[in-house]
Amino acid sequence: VGIIVRYITPNGFLLFEKVGGVVPKVLPGRRMLLRGDHGIVRALVGITPGHLVAPAEANNVPSTAQSYLDIGAASRAEVENLGIHIGTTGVYDCPVMELNKPDLLTGRCVDDRIGCAVLLTLAESLKGAEFAGTVHLTFVVHEETTHAGAAAASTYLNPDYCITLDTFPAGGTPDVPETRIPANIGKGVVLSLYEAINFAFLMYCPHPRLLEVAKAVAEGQQIPLQWVTMAEALYCNDASDVIRTGSHCP
Description:
Blueprint: E1 2-8, E2 13-19, E3 31-36, E4 39-45, E5 69-70, H1 76-81, E6 89-92, E7 97-98, E8 105-106, H2 110-125, H3 148-157, E9 189-196, E10 203-204, H4 208-221, E11 225-234, H5 239-242
């Protein structure tokens, strides 16, 4: 999730486009990190000074097309000397920190650094274990854009079945009641039963047999599960491409 530079103005400002699931209302005034050719360049999403904002504009969120980045440059040449050009990408300048409890975190790319951490922990726990087949733990790229990483992994590994790990939005907050998402932090693993892949509402649902196995294992190990559907919201993960590529496995 981030941005990509689409134009550099003569006086050194950068126009940009969104990459992945960027929520426009979190961008104004936000600090960003650009991946310049010579290293990281700090940037700020420009915002009209509060003294100049008309009352009618005060509650409006600027679109990406109306926004710009300020890196403290005074010319296009100065921008280019910093290694910034059309196509340069950037991410939020948002370090990971604990929210007063060691297991509650906020920060950039928790989606899906958490999934990576789970896989690494799983790898440690599987040492010496025997299987009827081969277990591949894969970390894939481009889930927010093309799902190309999952498609490549599925084609290369040709698996019999796949379990995909991802983060999931939590309900129970003031703006997301449990009637909308009946899944809360600390109440167990979330299993998504039905979801929309895009706003055209192309749907995806996991294989029923895999859900039966997950339920049976969870009951045997006393692992709490939370069941959700997201058919009328935009939520999906790499599983939707695994079933369409390689072995087309569940």
